[in-house]
Amino acid sequence: MKLSKDGKALLYITVFLTIFGIIMVLSSSWPTAVSEHRAWYYYGLRQGIFALLGFVFMQFTGVYDNENYKKNALWIFLISLILCALVFTPLGKEINYAKRWIKIKSFSFMPSDILKFASINLAAAIVSQKINKIKTFNEGFLRMIFLVAVSGGIVFMQPDLSTAIVIIGSVFCVFMVSGLNVRYIVSTLLTTLVFGYIAIFKVKIGYSRIDRIIAFIDPLGNLEDEGWQLSQSLAAVSNGSFLGSGLGMSKQKFLYLSQAHNDFIFAIICEEFGFLGALILIIAYFAFLVCGIRIAMKTKYIYSKLLVSGILFVIGIQAYVNMTVVTGLIPPTGLTLPFISYGGTSLMIMLGLVGIILNVDRNNEEERK
User: What keywords are annotated for this sequence in UniProt (predicted)?
Assistant: First the structure.
């Protein structure tokens, strides 16, 4: 695969983040694995296996014709919706009062991870086919509203407000890059904020989101409930200081901080590698996004530009939100840290999305020569 300098840099950063993720999953998960009577390397080994499968998947998406995604965008979207609907059937697996997983024997996955790509892909396909009319009310605004309502709505009902917001935001990103009338975007954002307020403060589906808000405002005052997790996360960040306690030397991972290898793995990174390690990780994500943006800007195909933009939004916003949750800047959301948090489906899909970006870069290089 012939890549540009930006493509190579993006690939190297992806490999670095993934390998670092395996190491951190291994470091942060072994107390949990032992407490569950598993081998201490259980989660780390699984993450490594999924990483290998993910790189194979990335190789496939890196050479597969992206036009096929465009041609089958509606079918991919409909299949993703059906998979998301299956979580409400006996196939759905409930974790922490939410049905976000499909479990078939020992295999489980989150269909909303697939819907992220499907929504971006459909939005990019719609816009690229209607680029001259996208600024109009019917062709632009109504199509965006429909896509946002359907994809965001079904995920919200699981309930998974944070993933719904990521999906809605990625669709907004695609339409904004396409040049949709600003007043349509502003009006839709305001409408979304109103419904978001209702969703957070007025609607209860399985658990109260207000509890998370209260815990965020005063974590020490809610140590017996939602505040415990955030308090332990902040303790881990504080313990790390500037240089950290060293790889494997975290204290909070010893069952004080739940989800230490998943949603809150960044807290363990801060504890073991300190502010300096966290800063290097943030720079790596920033460099990843810069390389991706440069690749998107080089392509002359509208669909490819929009597809890459949406993918970058998903990866960037997930990394940002995860880090800000761990450091107590925003309430807990449940979003994982891309390439690093434990999770086979998420890792494989993220690596597959990187393959799509590299595919666009490869096409750019072939056309340039």
Answer: Cell cycle, Cell division, Cell shape, Glycosyltransferase, Membrane, Peptidoglycan synthesis, Transferase, Transmembrane, Transmembrane helix
